[in-house]
Amino acid sequence: MDVYESALDLIGGTPLVRLRTESPAAVYAKLEYLSIGGSSKDRIGLRMIEQAEQDGLLRPGGTVVEATSGNTGIGLALVAAEKGYRSVVVVSDRASEEKVATLRAFGAEVVIKPGGLPREHPDHPMSTAVRIAGTTPGGWLANQYDNPANPEAHYLTTGPEIWRQTHGRVTHLVSCIGTGGTISGAGRYLKEISGDAVQVIGADPASSVYSGGDGRPYFIEAAGHFLHPDTADDVWPTSYHPEVIDRIVPVADRHALDTLRQLACTQGLLVGGSSGTALAAAHQVAAGAGPDAVVVVILPDSGRQYLSKYFNDAWMLRLGFLDGDGSHPRVADATAPDARTAPLPYLNTRTTVGEALAVLRARKSSGAAPVLPAGPCPAGPDRRPTAPELTGSVALAGLEAAVRDGNATPADPLSGHLDPPLPHFGHGEPARRALDELTGNSHDTAVVLHDGCALALITSADLHGALGSAR
Ligand SMILES: Cc1ncc(COP(=O)(O)O)c(C=O)c1O
């Protein structure tokens, strides 16, 4: 019979499919979403668990614990379910709903912690997972970031598959870098077997520190390395072996998102955000390679996990990743050069109440402004803040009242006097909808986003102006 004995036999073994491109080089996508659990992380789930069993770290009745943006948790949870272990997965509240629901479907207990905390914080997903593993009898922490079985899984399976499938003709490997396991393991294998002929290229969100970015937040889940402004020591995973990599191509979120949405519409392949980053980089690599080049790009997971984000026009519009849905006027029309509001103020959590009052009083209209994180790379005129950095807000009237009533002194940092973040709209959203949502908001001020970054502030008067001029 042509059958498999268990779900574990359906991990990996994913196909390569040729993509239509404009370059003469051949580009093949490795469709990791066709692995049984839906991502490249099934491979490391299996390898890490089997290595832990061999090492006596995981015994019958034990509990597998991990901190993960989702896919590794899914890989671990499915292997744990098949082998009869309990699993506990800690995720940040930025992980997509679909991933969390999938984890629960595989029987994992999911612990959700706030995203964007520094690694030292006790509520950071990794600190939480370490604690749970340490206090659960039979608990074992998989720790994909520092577990040698992670790159090894790709050294033993992904790399050899690519070599076999291309009959040794692969010339370039392109992969995202999250924990670094995929590119380090598959890259090392391909370099070794080809006598160093295969070029290994990382694809990275443009602001990720791996490609030299400043580490500010970005919108592609599970790829790159983000640097929280309060992080004392930036620790890179030991699963990442930078010496394997020849170069890294930074890819702007907007470009990655356009690439993956287009792939679904034109080539019938529905893949996730990091696949968009990898594919955009692969196109660039292929464009610079000769006609005999064979570029293999690893697409780690499916777009079905991101239907509420990257394939959801409302989500894309709100963050300013789409220019509009044909409605006029748009929010951008209310932020035209003659918008009444002054340029974006750059208040951060360490700005004093006295300094903030001076800034707010100098502004022509509405007294509210966003407050951003302080840190080694604060937002400023040369570096616009991203949506996740809109930490809180302050308003002139509120701060004046706090000082007057003795609840604040001019020397206090703003961190102790924050209101919730201002609402935000994408530049392409209809001005009418923005006005309806802003009406009744206590601060009457919103942030306008373009490609996920704050562009300006607008008030209902600006929106009325745009709507009036369109009438
Ligand atoms: C969707 C997705 N893309 C890319 C990556 C990065 O792969 P690696 O951790 O092997 O570097 C991950 C890992 O978490 C992932 O889940």
Please, could you describe this protein's structure?
The chain has 471 residues and is an alpha/beta fold. The longest helix is centred in the middle third of the chain and has 17 residues, at 149-165. It has helices at residues 41-54, 71-83, 97-105, 125-135, 149-165, 181-193, 253-267, 273-287, 313-318, 331-334, 353-362, 396-404, 431-438, 460-470; strands at 16-18, 26-31, 63-67, 86-92, 109-113, 139-141, 172-176, 199-205, 247-251, 294-299, 347-348, 368-372, 392-395, 424-426, 446-450, 453-458. It is globular. Pyridoxal-5'-phosphate binds next to helix 2 and helix 6.
Shape: globular
The percent of residues in helical segments reads 25-40%
Give the end-to-end Cα distance, rounded to a whole number of Å. 71 Å
At CATH level 3, the topology of the largest domain is: Rossmann fold
Ligand species: pyridoxal-5'-phosphate
The secondary-structure class comes to alpha/beta
- Spell out the helices and strands N to C: EEHEHEHEHEHEHEEHHEHHEHEEHEHEEH
Instruction: Tell me which oligomeric state these chains represent.
Output: single chain
Query: Could you give a short account of the major beta sheet?
Result: 6 strands, mixed
Number of helices: 14
- Which strand order does the major sheet show? 1-2-10-7-8-9
CATH architecture title of the largest domain? 3-Layer(aba) Sandwich
- Strand % is 15-25%
Total count of strands: 16
Q: State mean pLDDT (0 to 100 scale).
A: 92
Poorly predicted runs of 5 or more residues: none
**Rg, Cα atoms, Å:** 24 Å
Q: What is the C-level CATH assignment of the largest domain?
A: Alpha Beta
